[in-house]
Amino acid sequence: MRHTPLILGATVALLAAAGLAGCAADKPPVMVPVTTTSTSTATSTVTTPPLATLSRAQIEAIVNSPDRSAADRTNDIRRHPVDMLMFIGIKPGWTALDVFTGGGYTTELLARAIGPTGLVYGQSRPRNPDSPPPRPAAPEGGAMSPAAAPPPAPRGAADMLADRGAEMKAAGVAAAPIAFVALPFDNPVPPEAIGKLDLVTLMFNYHDLGWLGTDRASTNRAIFDALKPGGYYVIADHAGRPGTGISESGTLHRIEESFLKSEVEAAGFRLAAEGDFLRNPNDPRDQNTPNPPQPKDEFVLKFVKP
Questions:
Q1: CATH class of 3-23+53-127+161-304
Q2: pLDDT tens-digit profile of 32-90?
Q3: Which helix (H) or strand (E) segment is 121 a member of?
Q4: Count of Cβ atoms closer than 10 Å to residue 135 Cβ
Q5: pTM for this structure?
Q6: Is 166 left (phi over 0), alpha (psi -120 to 50) or beta?
Q7: Using an 8 Å Cβ cutoff, are 46 and 267 in contact?
Q8: Tell me, what DSSP letter sits at residue 41?
Q9: Residue 261: which of 247, 249, 248, 273 has the closest Cα?
Q10: Percent of the chain beyond pLDDT 70?
């Protein structure tokens, strides 16, 4: 994996998870007052060291944990989770929010990496039992059309995250607790997390906010407000061609990288780093599933809240 630092004005930042150009500076040590056993009224201080970023070896051990599901291991081939978590610069004890949690692949990885002293929220929008979920004009990645596909199982993100949490507990994994939140995409942050988040991830679904008609400016402002200063917003998505913006979000399931950058930066974020570990320069970016078959060209961006 090659990290390419960017200089914006004077610095840089992003998504997920991560610092291509490296992590933001560690927080200053916290000075904790300690009461002495002396009759003196004086106090002393001890320095609590800052949290250490996980090493590649530690992340590889997490990803290679034998209790992870076969489905997640298959997804690893495409998603490069070791590179992603290294890019994020993940630290134990963080509080994180995974927007568009879906089946919980990324949410679980964050919980495993952050550990039991942290907390991970997994967000999806509320389900309406009286109406089918909205569908894009074309399914992503050349899957079966909605008409030909079998009806989905009546299970939502809350159920899948609960299963993941229970399975990790049964396996004795020292993971962060996972809290599911059902909130709209234009305001995906639970009120109790505002100003307390170290990390927000949005993996391969920012483009979907286009065909869903989401107020993306509201989404990005809510995430900006929820992050601590120095907190990261990491986004990965399928690259579109220059000039297409978000117009192909429901057909080719792609978004123009520069368009996404401008929207996120408009909320106050600064781009910190770009990851090239999912790039494919041979993808012409003009089809949903590249032809001949090959991985989609995908970008990973890490923004920081100044």
A1: alpha beta
A2: 222 222 233 333 344 446 689 999 999 999 999 999 999 999 999 999 999 999 999 99
A3: strand 119-124
A4: 11
A5: 0.79
A6: alpha
A7: no
A8: S
A9: 273
A10: 76
